[in-house]
Amino acid sequence: MSYQIGVIPGDGVGPEVISWGRKVLEAAGKRGGLDLSFVEAPVGGTAFLETGKVLPEDSLQKLNESQAILKGPMGRPDIEAGIVERDGILTLRQHFGQYVNLRPVKLFRGLEAASPLKDNLLKDGVDFIIVRENSEGLYSRMGGINATSGTDINLFTEKGVTRILEFAFDLASKRGKDLISVDKANVLSASLFWRRHFDRMAAEYSDIKCSSQLVDSFCLLVLQDPSPAKWDVIVTDNMFGDIIADEAAAIVGSLGMSPSANLNPAGVSMYEPVHGSAPDIAGKGIVNPLATILSCALLLRYSLGQDGLANDVENAVQAALDQGLRTIDIAAGENACTTEELGAAVLAHLA
Ligand code: IPM
Ligand code: MG
Question: What's this model's pTM, rounded to 2 decimal places?
Answer without folding.
Answer: 0.97
